[in-house]
Design goal:
It comes from Setaria viridis. By secondary structure, this protein is an alpha+beta fold. Helices cover 42% and strands 16% of the residues.
Length: 405
């Protein structure tokens, strides 16, 4: 301690006698730190000696009463035995296994999560996938597809890697040493616990359980891939279309926040307040910039409902646009004499546009269909036939009130 004080005084004199070079500043800072730690250790030793002395004096003047403590312990044991023998209050864990499972299956997600915090046994029971599969399907099933499941697995892997890297680093060690030294002198400092490296302040613990996935969806911290009808609040340029986006749930408003990928010169577009009825799980696994392989061209007939990929130019992602198969000009529309399904050309109609509009009709080749179009009218991609009445009904619900130009 004395040597450190002497070194500190010499360093101060050198500091005052000549210009402060960088090495001298580092040396002085190191000496100050060592001096402060030594001083704290010295004070802590004095506090410890004083505490021991006070405890010794107290034991001499007021001896402990072991007989009283033994009697109290015996009385406590007797009370416990009496309570056990008299049949104390029943516990849920006393019920049969089947009864507990039946109770847990009828709990909503919020109550099931609360039950998981009761004790270790209930935590293991309440985290079972068989309890959360139904809740996951009922709330999120219509907006989650295979791509969302793959994204969740990637999210888990990324969280695991970042957590491992954070625990391997040594950041925060100096701060913990300072707090440990100060806590010896001032006990209040012991309440200041430094956060673990890489730790987050809140949020559910991530694991591969369905409960963890459900809670991550509910909290809005997990962005999942889906598709949005009439993007950007029903902008006229996207009416009767469905585009890929990343979505995050907002439990305050029971809506979604959509994040559309950048295209062309546009940056990432954000849209808040997306209602549930405008979100769907991707019906196919085709990515937004990939051409969908059409497998229904040979069976298309007039009156069939379809979705077709379309994009403004080569830099844009595809969106799915609703249309119907129409009759060729050579056909009078009589279903008894119609031969449109035998032609190599398929006429697609987009009746949301006014007659005469360049967006009203499009021709595609049935046998050798590829991406067709130009920079002026856009490019048409793959086609999928709508076979579900619910899909067709959904597009009809989104039909615009006014005919588009």
């Amino acid at each position: 301690m004395l040597a450190l004080l002497t070194a500190f005084v010499v360093a101060c004199l050198l500091f005052l006698s000549k210009p402060c070079a960088r090495d001298m500043r580092l040396c002085l800072a190191s000496l100050c730190q060592q001096l402060a730690l030594s001083l704290l250790g010295f004070l802590a030793g004095l506090r410890l000696i004083g505490g021991v002395a006070a405890a010794s004096a107290a034991s001499e003047t007021m001896p402990l009463m072991p007989s009283f403590k033994r009697k109290r312990a015996v009385a406590t044991v007797e009370n416990v035995e009496a309570a056990g023998g008299g049949g104390g209050e029943p516990s849920v864990l006393d019920l049969p296994e089947l009864a507990i499972d039946c109770i847990l299956e009828r709990l909503p997600p919020a109550e099931l999560r609360n039950m998981a915090a009761v004790c270790r046994s209930m935590r293991e029971r309440c985290r079972g996938d068989h309890l959360w599969e139904r809740h996951m399907s009922e709330k999120w099933g219509r907006v989650l597809g295979h791509a969302a499941r793959d994204e969740w697995r990637a999210h888990l892997a990324s969280a695991s890697e970042s957590g491992g890297a954070g625990s391997a680093t040594g950041g925060g060690g100096k701060r913990r040493r300072w707090l440990a030294a100060l806590s010896c002198v001032c006990p209040v400092v012991s309440w200041m616990r430094p956060k673990a490296d890489g730790a987050k302040s809140s949020g559910p613990v991530l694991d591969d359980s369905i409960m963890s996935w459900y809670l991550s969806m509910e909290s809005g911290k997990f962005w999942f891939p889906a598709q949005v009808y009439n993007r950007e609040h029903g902008h006229v340029g996207f009416m009767m279309s469905c585009y890929d986006a990343e979505l995050s749930y907002d439990f305050h408003t029971d809506t979604f926040r959509a994040r559309y990928p950048p295209h062309g010169r546009r940056t990432v577009v954000l849209e808040d307040g997306v209602q549930w009825d405008r979100v769907r799980a991707p019906p196919v696994d085709t990515l937004a910039h990939d051409l969908h392989a059409s497998d229904c061209l040979h069976e298309l007939r007039p009156g069939d409902h379809i979705e077709i990929q379309w994009r403004r130019n080569k830099e844009f992602p595809y969106g799915w646009w609703y249309g119907v198969v129409g009759h060729l000009e050579s056909c009078d529309g009589n279903e008894h004499f119609c031969r449109c399904h035998l032609s190599d050309t398929v006429l697609l109609e987009f009746n949301q546009y006014t007659p005469g509009s360049r967006w009203r009709q499009a021709l595609v080749n049935r046998k050798d269909h590829r991406e067709e179009g130009n920079e002026g009218d856009g490019f048409y991609g793959g086609i999928r036939k709508l076979r579900s009445k619910d899909d067709i009904s959904k597009w009809r619900q989104l039909w615009p009130t006014d005919i588009l130009e």
